[in-house]
Amino acid sequence: MLAVHFGAGNIGRGFIGALLAQSRYEVCFIDINDALVEALNHKQSYRLVKAGETREESEIDHVWAINSRTDREKVVATIARADLVTTAVGANVLPLIADLIAEGLQKRISETEKPLNVIACENMIAASSLLRENVYKHVTEQEKGVFAQRFGFPDAAVDCIVPNQTHDDPLTVAVEPYHEWIVDGTKVKGELPPVRGMKCVDDLTPYLERKLYTVNTGHAITAYLGYACGYPTIKAAIDDPFIREIVQKALGETGSLLIDKYGFAPEEHAAYITKIIDRFQNPYISDDVTRVARSPIRKLGANDRLVGPARQLLARGQKPENLALGIAAALAYDYEGDNEAVQLQQTIARTGIDGALCEYAGLSREDELVQLVLEQGRRLKEVLQKKSPESLR
Ligand SMILES: NC(=O)c1ccc[n+]([C@@H]2O[C@H](COP(=O)([O-])OP(=O)(O)OC[C@H]3O[C@@H](n4cnc5c(N)ncnc54)[C@H](O)[C@@H]3O)[C@@H](O)[C@H]2O)c1
Ligand SMILES: O=P(O)(O)OC[C@@H](O)[C@@H](O)[C@H](O)[C@H](O)CO
User: Fold this and answer.
1) CA separation (Å) from 335 to 52, 216, 332, 356?
2) Cα of 149 from ligand 2 centre, angstroms
3) Residue 162 alpha carbon, nearest atom of ligand 2
4) What Cα–Cα distance (Å) separates residue 327 from each residue in 60, 149, 277, 365?
5) pTM of the full structure
6) Which ligand is nearest to the CA of 7?
7) Is ipTM strictly over 0.95?
């Protein structure tokens, strides 16, 4: 079996590609990073390290790669004969790879009637659906009919922390031992050849929202508060009692939303939160706050991990003060190495915090959430000033 996976980065090599290879797929990575592609083709394997107490190591083999910038035709031909296509390139990149996937699927139609599934493993609600929408922009009306019958774009929830890292061998990747990969089984076309660690469900939304609004909400707030307090890593940030308390309370807020919407058992959800905070404290992983905080404009999106649950809670008559404090911290994120942070700060300088929330989170100036974020922004400033006036950015 052949899997084509877009994005040979942290989650591509460390999680999706590794599980596929361990499930006896030959994995063809598609990337635009020359050095990575060359190294994968040279070695055709890489080392996977489980960053836990026992530090298990294994060799992932039967892998190779294509550079989609220089070898488009090869990518198209490989998609045409694949048994599965997956992505982990970043949500913002999905529209940029859609034309290439469309071309591969067009070629496939002329060669075989076999169905194929394309699963976007990105941190957002309905990433595969977004990819499908973008792929359909590149095909004719007539082709759309065949595409709809033959090609599935099941949405998915993926969870495994893979930090940025450097090793002597740049292909080596260390990942946390925990992982979860849940796929919307109702959108699968034909048979999905089994993948170790992948679970298909009939109703993905509760799992997807539980993951995004717990793991990623907590992670983002830890990162933005950690950055504001001058901590370099997620572990250092979550070890700070002030940050841990805010994160715990914010996850209490999203928890009440998730329990209310989907009927999760409160004790089980509390255990889920505890487990996640433990994962942030993993002493065998060093995860930079700037990785987790990356792309603050995307993270401030209307349905994303911060504003998404906060809006829903307000609509239910609840006041998510700790989420609002997390949003205020995200708006303060001014790391110069992050293009979105730079753009965010320019927008704030031009239009104010409320203007930025209107532009990026789809809110209006009168929205209760905007007022709550402004209020919590003042609280955050006071806390930080008391904590360490000299570290206040
Ligand atoms: N790292 C994690 O802990 C984690 C966990 C779950 C989900 N995710 C999600 O997985 C996705 C990837 O995250 P990551 O941490 O692996 O990022 P990463 O930066 O390590 O990897 C992304 C890879 O995509 C490649 N890429 C960029 N543009 C491309 C293009 N046009 N065509 C082909 N390849 C392209 C990059 O060169 C890079 O190798 C994101 O959506 C992220 O939210 C990450
Ligand atoms: O990948 P992002 O930028 O959406 O979010 C950063 C982290 O929160 C994320 O990568 C987590 O490590 C991951 O989602 C854990 O499963």
Assistant:
1) 30, 19, 9, 17
2) 33
3) 12
4) 39, 42, 19, 15
5) 0.97
6) 1
7) yes
Ligand sitting nearest the alpha carbon of 30: 1
Q: In terms of DSSP H, where are the helices of 44-83?
A: 72-80
Ligand 1, residues at Cβ distance < 6 Å: 6-12, 30-33, 36, 68, 88-91, 93, 96-97, 121-123, 158, 160-162
Which one of the ligands is nearest to 122 CA?
A: 1
Q: Is 4 annotated as a binding residue?
A: yes
* Cα–ligand 2 centroid distance for 293 (angstroms): 9
Cross-strand pairs, 198 = 181
**How far is Cα 72 from Cα 101, in angstroms, rounded to an integer?**
10
Specify whether the CB–CB gap between 123 and 308 falls below 8 A. no
Whether 11 lines ligand 2, by a CB cut-off of 6 Å, is no
Find out whether 108 and 80 touch, Cβ atoms under 8 Å.
yes
Q: How many CA atoms lie within 13 A of 162 on its CB side?
A: 24
Structural domains in the chain?
A: 2-202 (3.40.50.720), 206-391 (1.10.1040.10)
Give the pLDDT of the chain (393 residues) as one tens digit per residue: 999 999 999 999 999 999 999 999 999 999 999 999 999 999 999 999 999 999 999 999 999 999 999 999 999 999 999 999 999 999 999 999 999 999 999 999 999 999 999 999 999 999 999 999 999 999 999 999 999 999 999 999 999 999 999 999 999 999 999 999 999 999 999 999 889 999 999 999 999 999 999 999 999 999 999 999 999 999 999 999 999 999 999 999 999 999 999 999 999 999 999 999 999 999 999 999 999 999 999 999 999 999 999 999 999 999 999 999 999 999 999 999 999 999 999 999 999 999 999 999 999 999 999 999 999 999 999 999 998 755 544
Residue nearest to ligand 2 atom 11, measured at CA:
161
How far, in Å, from the CA of 31 to the mean position of ligand 1? 10
Nearest CA to ligand 1 atom 19: 9
Q: In what order do the strands lie in the sheet with 45-50?
A: 57-61, 45-50, 173-175
Determine whether the annotation assigns residue 104 to a binding site: no
11 assigned to a ligand binding site: yes
Closest residue by Cα to atom 43, ligand 1, is 123
